[in-house]
Amino acid sequence: MQNHPVYTDNDPQSELSTLNLGPTHPATHGVFQNVLQLDGERIVSGVSTIGYIHRAFEKIAEHRPFYQITPLTDRLNYCSSPINNMGWHMTVEKLLNIQTPKRVDYLRVIVMELARIADHIICNGVLGVDTGAFTGFLYMMEHREAIYEIYEEVCGSRLTTNIGRIGGFERNFNSRAFDKLRAFLKNFPKTLKEFESLFNRNRIFVDRTRDVAAVSAETALSYSWTGPLLRAAGVDYDVRAMNPYSSYEDFDFEVPVGDNGDVYSRFLVRNEEMWQSLRIIEQALAKLDKEPSDIFHADVPEFYLPPKEEVYNNMEALIYHFKIVMGEIPTPTTEVYHSVEGANGELGFYLVNDGGRSPYRLHFRRPSFINYQMYAPMSRGMLLSDAIINMSSLNVIAGELDA
Amino acid sequence: MAKIPNEQLIKAIADKFDTSVTVIGEPYELLTVETGRETIIDLLSFLKTDPELKFTFLTDITGIHYPEQEKPIGIIYHLHSLTTNTRIRIKVFLEGTDVHIPTATVLWDGANWMERETYDFFGVIFDGHPDLRRILNVDDMTAFPMRKEFPLEDPNRVDKKDFYFGR
């Protein structure tokens, strides 16, 4: 047995009270538990307990072929599953030295940026709800629905998407997907602008968020923070800009940074990232016009599962299908680390391969897990209501936290 | 600044640590070195504070288990130099009966939960860690589930016997 932290205050003279915030609580947007010692409304100390939805993905992944690990990655950050899916495909492609065509890269960029917008919509919308403004959330959610409809056209599912395959996509984007994408690009900026004018200079909102949970760049780096949280503290580290993957080097976009890492800076950084994502999607659409419209996967028959009608009618496709499913294609014995800019930060995949059909070891560097560990230390001395807002703006997704 | 070439990195480490740090490869251009637990903190703090290398960012700590090896338990550190955009991977292997290694929380606060996770899944004891408890699994678990001898499914289950599936 391990030594448990002392939850209760046994000193009869003490006036501190113990509060169990969670495991499930409407204010925590997921299954987290924080045991807080309170002096009135001020937090004296806190202990975070996580792991309530731990599903042993790393263990399961050691027993699954590469192409069956994609659905596991869906369930990490389920607010932006496509980024996880693409990150995993790109890790395997890096392992196997597969070059994807430009059109695949651009399509992936579109899907990933849509996912980033969907994730930031939730985070910033909910931040508004937690400060008492429900309206913005409802207006923004309409557009998350529009994004999910685009996913639906691309892959058939909405939340846990399983988009794409190793080497590209399972099918080409249909015309409805592009129509819906154009409609989204037309409608969303208006709402985002409205959303910003509702909050950015709103006296109540600014008073609630400005200078709350401010984090210096040094502290953020020491805690290995990444993503919007680190950028809000003033460090311009973005994997898309620093180690471009999926042809991000072809796009013109800015990496917004904040000043003092408080909740308000994080809010502004996320809003600006949505504008930048829209910019990237528009550029990607323009670039797609110059690419041959029938290419949606790389020419790697030994790793890309062929379509079913091919399997039934074409001997070569049948052979490849059999070889892929039975895991008879040799893979290099090596290790690879690949990271993508997830909605919450650097999402890394560390894959150790022994030449078999499934990884010898797969580790997910999950930004939520690493970002959340500062929550209890940083809550010390904070008001309970500020700690709630701080949790919203950390955007901890329970699935990514617990893997 | 541009990426530090791996040769320069190898030389900087060799100048300082002589033979106690060995290069074990450069898969996908990511320099991978191995060291023992005696030098790991010295190596990490050298990489972090050296004015030219500046590996100030701890990307990840994780573990790995090779049951057939003489030293079966591995701890893997990924560092990132944000100013030069260079990454490095460091491995330390430990014997199965003596899984102690000094903690990296003295250098990075963020190492705290990464080491707790590695302890939770591989049973590595990080000496000097401020709060080495299980983090994702239940507290009263006795096994270290990411070790290879731990089965994926509970062997005591009766509803998934092979003969029900004709195997």
- Quickly name the level 1 CATH class of chain B: Alpha Beta
Biggest β-sheet description of chain A: 3 strands, antiparallel
Estimate what percentage of residues of chain A fall within beta strands: 5-15%
CATH C-level name of chain A: Mainly Alpha
CATH superfamily descriptor of chain B: NADH:ubiquinone oxidoreductase Nqo5 subunit
With strands numbered from the N-terminus, the spatial order across the biggest sheet of chain A is 1-2-3
Please identify, by name, the CATH architecture of chain B: 2-Layer Sandwich
> How would the global form of chain B be characterised?
elongated
What is the SS-derived class of chain B? alpha/beta
- Cross-sheet strand order for the largest sheet of chain B: 1-2-5-4-3
Number of separate domains of chain A: 1
Helix content of chain A: 40-55%
The beta-strand count of chain A equals: 6
Q: Give the uncertain stretches of chain B in residue-range form.
A: none
Shape of chain A: globular
